[in-house]
């Protein structure tokens, strides 16, 4: 089943519908150490959810921030998102700090929102709007980040028309 999933996801070249996903794989010293996803929650409303996971050995080294900043650039500058949001366990301080570093603000804290590993857990929602990005210096708007975005994605049509991506799986060596 996993092989089928990888084959199916790898063959996707367009963001055409709600729930389509763009993947970014983070490599370090020849091994995959994490991945990020950008899931279109609503094409009509130009909304995408970003998520990340990194191996504990490389957490705190800046890989998540650099990769997430590049993926936020893809969402806004290439795919035309209006809003990018993340959901996380509010006890996850590193993810909350990453959201803040990306210019996101916490929009909600849902108490006992889901049953997970034998207990009720809270959920925090963080988000960034396209027009809020202009005041953010040095995070995702840097020339270097934009050059990386151009390397990993191209667009031929607007978001509504489903932009063409070079590859559904992006590999980013850090």
Q: Could you describe the 3D structure shown?
A:
The structure is a single chain. The chain has four helices and seven strands. The longest helix is centred in the middle third of the chain and has 16 residues, at 63-78. Helix content is 25%, strand content 36%. A seven-stranded mixed beta sheet has the order 5-6-4-3-2-1-7, covered by helices on one side. Residues 137-146 and 148-174 have low confidence and may be disordered. By secondary structure, the chain is of the alpha/beta class. Helix 2 packs across helix 4 (143-152). The protein has helices at 2-10, 63-78, 93-101, 143-152; strands at residues 21-28, 31-42, 47-54, 83-88, 105-116, 119-129, 169-173. It is globular and about 40 Å long.
Element layout with pairings:
Layout: H1 2-10, E1 21-28, E2 31-42, E3 47-54, H2 63-78, E4 83-88, H3 93-101, E5 105-116, E6 119-129, H4 143-152, E7 169-173
Parallel strand pairs: 1-7, 3-4
Antiparallel strand pairs: 1-2, 2-3, 4-6, 5-6
Helix pairs in contact: 2-4
Strand content: 35-45%
Shape: globular
Low-confidence runs of at least 5 consecutive residues: 137-146, 148-174
Tally of separate helices: 4
Query: Could you give the distance between the termini?
Result: 30 Å
Mean pLDDT: 77
Largest sheet: 7 strands, mixed
Cα radius of gyration in angstroms: 16 Å
| H-E order | HEEEHEHEEHE
The helical percent reads 25-40%
Q: How many strands appear in the DSSP assignment? A: 7
């Amino acid at each position: 089943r996993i092989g089928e999933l990888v084959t199916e996801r790898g063959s996707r070249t367009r963001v055409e519908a709600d729930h389509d996903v763009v993947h970014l794989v983070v490599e370090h010293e020849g091994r995959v150490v994490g991945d990020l996803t950008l899931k279109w929650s609503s094409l009509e409303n130009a909304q995408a959810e970003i998520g990340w996971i990194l191996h504990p050995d490389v957490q705190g080294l800046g890989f998540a921030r650099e990769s997430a900043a590049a993926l936020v650039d893809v969402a806004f500058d290439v795919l035309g998102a209006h809003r990018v949001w993340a959901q996380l366990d509010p006890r996850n301080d590193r993810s909350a700090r990453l959201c803040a570093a990306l210019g996101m603000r916490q929009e909600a804290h849902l108490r006992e929102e889901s049953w997970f590993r034998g207990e009720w857990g809270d959920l925090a929602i963080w988000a960034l709007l396209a027009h809020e990005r202009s005041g953010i210096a040095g995070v995702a708007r840097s020339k270097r980040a934009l050059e990386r975005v151009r390397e990993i994605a191209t667009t031929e049509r607007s978001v509504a028309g489903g932009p063409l991506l070079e590859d559904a799986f992006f590999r980013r060596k850090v």
